Amino acid sequence: MHAHDAGQVALVRCRHCNIKRYFKPGELREVYGNVPIEALRGKMRCQKCRNTEHIDAELLHLVGLEAVQVRYRRLAEIRFVRRVIWRDE
Predict the structure, then answer these.
(1) Do the beta carbons of residue 12 and residue 32 sit within 8 Å?
(2) Counting C-beta atoms within 10 Å of the first and last residue's C-beta, which end of the chain has fewer, N or C?
(3) Is 76 helix (H, G, I), strand (E, B) or coil?
């Protein structure tokens, strides 16, 4: 069973700039693939300090008032940037 189906929430923190963000696990899976939550440490980048080494991620079950008050960071779009490199022969 996937974390999204179990009603879990992904909490991602940057230890450097002390920011907490809540994500839907289904959207993280769409961006980073079907990887364990611990694997996001090396792949995800903090949008404030642009650092990858200080990222912590965990799955939570939010209940009651905290489940209603949490603000999610939602996926708006995915952009692919194509870079072409030429070489002479």
Answers:
(1) no
(2) C
(3) coil
